[in-house]
Amino acid sequence: MGILKGCIPFIGKIIDKIECEMILDFMTLSSFKGETKSQGTPKIVMDLAYDVMDKNVLLVEDIIDSGNTIKIVLDLLKQRGAKSVRLLTFLDKPSGREVDVKADYVCFEVPHGFLVGFGLDYKDKLRNLPYVAHMVSNDKK
């Protein structure tokens, strides 16, 4: 299962590598309100279509930063009776971690900074970039 919208490019790259029978499902959560920092507790915007009871779940995420969103999803999947849950993230930013969450599989560990592209957005834009870029502010404070 993937967390929308950021997981779409990553899932698109890996789905044909999964050789077992599977059901693809998605959940949408949001803690960002058009900004670059989380705006509180993540809320479920769209829930899963399928029941995870007694299922092995591979949870696919674009980036783990604070860990707050993914922790909520991990806890929810366990509450719903998933047989097992493994976490795969494209990017891991441990320097931003606020809760204890560790991915089972990490493609790349990244340093502090705001990233865009390959599913990562800024104000719901730039997700379509075919690469990941570090966004630098032009603010003169």
From TrEMBL:
EC class of this enzyme? Answer: transferase
InterPro entries per record? HGPRT, Hxn_phspho_trans, PRTase-like, PRTase_dom
Q: Name the Enzyme Commission number(s) assigned to this protein.
A: 2.4.2.8
Signal sequence bounds = none
Indicate where this protein resides in the cell: Cytoplasm
The biological process GO terms on file are: GMP salvage; guanine salvage; hypoxanthine metabolic process; IMP salvage; purine ribonucleoside salvage
Recorded GO CC terms: cytosol
Kindly state which keywords UniProt assigns to this record, in alphabetical order.
Answer: Cytoplasm, Glycosyltransferase, Magnesium, Metal-binding, Nucleotide-binding, Purine salvage, Transferase
Q: Which Pfam families match?
A: Pribosyltran
Pathway annotation: Purine metabolism; IMP biosynthesis via salvage pathway; IMP from hypoxanthine: step 1/1; Purine metabolism; GMP biosynthesis via salvage pathway; GMP from guanine: step 1/1
Q: Which cofactors are required for activity?
A: Mg(2+)
Q: Which residues form the Phosphoribosyltransferase domain?
A: 1-123
Task: Give the catalytic activity.
Answer: GMP + diphosphate = guanine + 5-phospho-alpha-D-ribose 1-diphosphate; IMP + diphosphate = hypoxanthine + 5-phospho-alpha-D-ribose 1-diphosphate
Q: Name one GO molecular function term.
A: nucleotide binding
User: What PANTHER family does its record include?
Assistant: HYPOXANTHINE PHOSPHORIBOSYLTRANSFERASE, HYPOXANTHINE-GUANINE PHOSPHORIBOSYLTRANSFERASE
Q: Which NCBIfam families match?
A: HGPRTase (TIGR01203)
Q: Which family does it belong to?
A: Belongs to the purine/pyrimidine phosphoribosyltransferase family.
Name the UniProt record assigns to this protein: Hypoxanthine phosphoribosyltransferase
Q: Which organism is it from?
A: Mycoplasmoides gallisepticum
